[in-house]
Amino acid sequence: MTGDGTRVVRAGLPEPEPFQPALPGPEFAAHFHLPGDAVGPYTYGRDGNPTWARLERAIGELESPDESAHTVAFASGMAAISAVLFSQLRAGDAVVLPDDGYQLLPAVRTRLESYGIEVRTAPTARDAQLGVLEGARLLWIETPSNPGLDVCDIRRLADAAHSQGALVAVDNTLATPLGQRPLDLGADFSVASGTKALTGHGDVLLGYATTRDAALADSVRLWRKTVGAIPGPMESWLAHRSLATLALRVRQQAAGALALAEALRDRPEITVLRHPGLPSDPSHKLAVRQMRPGRFGCVVSFTLPDKAHAERFLAALTLVDEATSFGGVRSTAERRARWGGDAVPDGFIRFSVGVEEPEDLVADVLRALDTAAQDA
Ligand SMILES: *Cc1c(COP(=O)(O)O)cnc(C)c1O
What we know:
Structural class: alpha/beta
Strand content: 5-15%
Oligomer: single chain
Number of helices: 11
Largest sheet: 7 strands, mixed
CATH architecture of the largest domain: 3-Layer(aba) Sandwich
Shape: globular
Bound molecules: pyridoxal-5'-phosphate
Order of helices and strands: HHEHEHEEHEEEHHHEHEHEEEH
Low-confidence stretches: none
């Protein structure tokens, strides 16, 4: 058993060769030399590229360290999500989605319905998706959910879905493969946006789907080729390079998020505070059971009295960028309701903790909260 910090620094690397780099650079090629019949590992740039192949091997080693798995990398998390849904579902099928998942799922729902697929939704909390599972072809889970941070029981939902022949996919973006391994918990697919904590520097869009089933991987790969949602070699290489620090970042960011959540617990202006690592959180017991110890993610969500109060708070922060996305090395925060896609109050803040020293970050946040409260 190798530890995660050890595994990540070598994940997906080729065997050492004299006078070659540890991680070969990005290979920019629209096509490869191809004599004779059109067979080979690398033919045309939409079908395969050695830089993606190395990244895919690396992600597979993290999502499924003990069993071989197939990973298909995409241009973004949405490309990966759409690939799994649209490659597996046909007209007349039913699919179960969370009603509190990523903000683009409603747009995906509309598209699925236009193709004659029945879409049912239920909340992530309390495993409510169990109630609408009957006869479904695929169950889509997002845990912890973004931005509400509810957690559902992957093993329980996967067992129920499999007992009636449904496939199970888990959006593992928030946890990362070092925080949670959906395939070990019974899922058929672990799907994620690599744009967030996986790559962690806020400079790359990327996505992937990992499965242990070769036929499922083939159908997802064919979808990628058909719609052309391929990752660029440069992005793939940057992502692979970033994986080496994933264990360091995940540990530091989770510790910082917990420190921040604990510091916010007694603030009178905060109505709802969520972080799965907080022992008092409704998600905590289940998170402890299915997530890896101390790795409950870098996101803390909380609600301030109103829009103006939230905007004063964000403006008063000095170590935190007002920006969307999460999982990066620099802390970011935003008033989530500004997008209009999530069912959250006007004062709801999604806070992403970076790798700063937790005490500096907590001091900055408490000072900004004081400033925001004074002007109320
Ligand atoms: C960001 C995000 C996505 C979409 O990923 P992109 O890389 O932005 O396309 C999907 N699911 C979750 C949970 C996300 O946070």
